[in-house]
Design goal:
By secondary structure, the protein is of the alpha/beta class. It is 42% helix and 15% strand. It has one domain: Aldolase class I (TIM Barrel). An eight-stranded parallel β-barrel has the order 1-2-3-4-5-6-7-8, surrounded by five helices. Bound molecules: phosphoenolpyruvate. Phosphoenolpyruvate (PEP) binds next to strand 8. Phosphoenolpyruvate binds next to strand 8.
Length: 255
């Protein structure tokens, strides 16, 4: 059975000092559970501070929000997988819709980043999702399939088993309008069927998490779905109590 993953994407929020305060508060309320993995993804400039504030018995690990595909070089303003690995990150978010939309990140770049992450022992959380226009035009499956196949192109079965896919409908991110349980489960099941047809039975090991206005109010119903293996949380992860509530609901939910 897959271990659920709850990842908090802080986006461009919190200074390093605020990040450390979060860790101290979150530690007091985070549930103890072997059935979930928890990730904190602060901005790059807070990774070191958070890593220093963490203890070996903390029930959460460190993730980054992005990486460059090269290990080093003349890429002003960029951060490499090698650097993230050296900082103690275990995972990295790749292809978030804000990167795709605001920074024109292509499926081909996502693929290079996924490969760079794996090379540096970072588990990639690969985001896919359609816009409202694409959904209304009936193109959801075609869009997420294209993003998935291109984003994971060239990966072997062993690598695929370590990937987390995040289904994040663009229209649900930061809008307070989450996908319904039925909408989410339908796309998750579809994504798993694509992984099965491309890579075989390893699809049963691949975590597919939902992202888009997840909150303590709507998380429980999502976590009861067969193909929803957790959540990528934005706004609701900025408050330690509400993020811990989502983690607790994931720990308690049965598939
Ligand atoms: C996100 O940005 O990945 C996200 C899911 O944000 P929110 O939870 O705020 O919709």
């Amino acid at each position: 059975m897959r271990t659920r993953l709850i990842a908090g994407n802080w986006k461009m929020h919190k200074t390093a000092t605020e990040a450390v305060e979060f860790v101290y508060e979150f530690r007091k309320v985070v549930p103890i559970s072997p059935t979930i993995d928890i990730l904190l993804a602060p901005p790059f400039v807070s990774l070191y501070a958070v890593q220093q504030a963490m203890t070996t018995d903390d029930r959460f690990a460190l993730a980054a929000q992005n990486l460059h595909w090269e290990a080093e070089g003349a890429f002003t303003g960029e951060i490499s997988g090698a650097m993230l690995q050296a900082l103690g990150c275990s995972s990295v978010i790749v292809g978030h819709s804000e990167r795709r939309q605001l920074f024109s990140e292509s499926n081909e770049e996502v693929n290079k980043k996924v490969k760079a992450a794996l090379k540096h022992k970072l588990l990639p959380i690969v985001c896919v999702g359609e816009t409202l226009e694409e959904r209304e035009a009936g193109h959801t499956q075609a869009i997420v399939k294209d993003q998935l196949i291109k984003g994971l192109s060239g990966l072997d079965v062993e690598n695929i088993s370590t990937i987390t896919i995040a289904y994040e409908p663009v229209w649900a991110i930061g809008t307070g309008r989450a996908a319904t349980v039925e909408q989410a489960e339908e796309v998750h099941a579809f994504l798993r069927s694509i992984v099965t047809s491309e890579w075989g039975s390893v699809a049963q090991d691949v975590r597919i998490v939902y992202g888009g206005s997840v909150s303590p109010q709507n998380a429980e119903a999502l976590f009861h779905c067969t193909d929803i293996d957790g959540a990528l949380v934005g706004k609701a992860c900025l408050d330690p109590t509400s993020f811990a509530s989502i983690c607790r609901l994931a720990a308690q939910a049965s598939y």
